[in-house]
Amino acid sequence: MTDSATFTTDEDRAIRASWAKGVLPPCPRCEVTLTHRAIGGGSFGLGYSRKREWLLCPSCKRSVLFDARRGTRT
């Protein structure tokens, strides 16, 4: 089995659950604390706006991108 460049669904879910509790979680693969970047999106003129969060591992370079309000992947 090869090592994937992405997190598994369970790893992704655990990361988002930690973020929802206000915790900047460690990478499930290499245990390094993930870094955070907020990403705007959408258009206020069109009636919708997104607040997305991007959590990145500075070591293995895997990341999780999700909608902060819904807590779901984008």
In words, what does this structure look like?
The protein is of the alpha+beta class and 74 residues long. It has one domain. 16% of the residues lie in helices and 34% in strands. The chain is built from one helix and four strands. A hairpin with a 6-residue loop joins strand 2 and strand 3. The termini are far apart. The model has no long low-confidence stretch (mean pLDDT 81).
Topology:
Layout: H1 9-20, E1 35-43, E2 48-56, E3 63-67, E4 72-73
Antiparallel strand pairs: 1-2, 2-3, 3-4
Summary keywords:
globular, 74 residues, 4-stranded antiparallel beta sheet
Short account of what is shown:
This protein has 74 residues and is of the alpha+beta class.
The count of domains is 1
Radius of gyration: 13 Å
Order of helices and strands: HEEEE
**Total number of strands:** 4
Alpha-carbon distance between the two ends: 27 Å
Range of strand content: 25-35%
For the biggest sheet, the summary is:
4 strands, antiparallel
Count of alpha/pi helices: 1
- Helicity, as a percent range: 10-25%
Q: Please, what is the average pLDDT?
A: 81
Oligomer: single chain
